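haha ok so turns out i had the wrong file open the whole time. this is the CORRECT one, sorry everyone. sequence first:
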Amino acid sequence: QDFSSEIVVNKDSSLDITETITADCGQAVGKHGIFRVLPEKVTVEGRGEIETPIELISIKDLNGNNYKYTASKNFQDKTITWKIGDADKTVQGINVYVIKYRVKNTIRFWNDDFDELYWNLTGNFWNLEIDKVHIEVKFPEEIKNDEVAVSLYSGTLGARDSQSADFYWDNDANLIVDSNRKLARREGITVSVTF
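then structure:
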């Protein structure tokens, strides 16, 4: 139903991310939770593979209770997956997952003319539709919105345009990204911010 995220951009090029994911399982049978899949390496044109190590901080419900989860790595697509839920417990209806983690090495410094934050805000590995996306990206106060360029890419993996999301600044250093339509399975939203 809803994918909301607060992303704090740190000066050491890491991101502190809190995702609040509202999933509606309806009356489905045999559902235990959700999978959250994230890249630990990304391929950058002209640079090869760049590592983006991920440190999980917590996975909780809205009341602060810990969810059970298991973690696994896929070395072929260079991802980590958190399988969130209890194998002995099924879920129905609406469930909320609050996932906190840190990602390192997300700002690209090698261009002589600018630095760039490039990050897939939602991921493209979802096997369900996402009704609504709302992301808040908080930059250090030294970053001013009149000194940056923002590009959004939305749709399937590798999409080079954005017809699914819009952005605005709610103050000098807070970027807001909202979807403007339902995202289909395997669709996501990526942001590029150069400064």
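The mean pLDDT is 92.
again sry for the mixup
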